[in-house]
Input
Amino acid sequence: MNTAVDLFLSPFAYSFMQRGMVASVIVGVLCAVVGCYVVLRGMAFLGDALAHAILPGVAVAYLFQSDLLLGALAAAILAALLIGLFSRREQVREDTAIGIVFAAALALGVALMSTIKSYSIDLTHVLFGNVLGVGERDLWLIGGLGALVLTTIVLLYKEFLIASFDPVLGATLRLPIGFLRNLMLIMLALTVVISLQTVGVGLVAAMLVTPAATASLLTRRLPSMMIVAAAIGALSALSGLYLSFYVNVASGAAVVLITTLFFMAAYLFAPGKGLAWQLTQKKRDSKRVAASEEETAG
Output
């Protein structure tokens, strides 16, 4: 018993692990909740696009020796607004606008980074995350922006729901559909930037999509989906950090792998939707049909 308790408490002996765990839970919950909108709208590509769109801002901030997070935030919000601007006209679909902004931002980021001689070393944590390097200032920033995004979702839940899934009804109700869409894009951009320190550019899309996709297999309504996704995101973050601490693997990768295991379990065993559940149900139905045919023949 003491061994199990020691294994659980040992990481808390280090202040960097304490900060890392708090930051990871915040990011896990935030990505999962925002990701529900991304998954239900079929826009998983958007999260990945915004994640890579921050690279020019990071590179510019690095060149001018400024705060990398502020540079990433500015670039992400600009990319989100450009996607909203391009997709406002019917001639350009939203997925097309995402592809255009994504490609241009990635190219600009690569071009700027290629001018930095030591970018492969100094900016590695941007690509892959470094949750154990979260400082007190970073933690306050993550917590503040995370609270802002979640509060906005709670206050404008009905408006976001209508704007996302029934814009015609929203227009009838005289809701500012364009403003709500842009606000949602900005919140997604903020979420991507908040996740930068924990999982990095390369893995943030997984944290946005996988917990929400897992919850969609287990629930039927959006509120319950958000709650389940948040629980999965938080548990994956904590489990991934423990795995990183004891097995000595990259923390961001460990978190994403744990999240994927949750998805695989739900994909196989989710009541009513899981593959194993459906196969079992088919076998039961086949037996019932066979039994019915025997009774009819008899």
User: Anything to note?
Assistant: The chain has a mean pLDDT of 81. The radius of gyration is 22 Å.
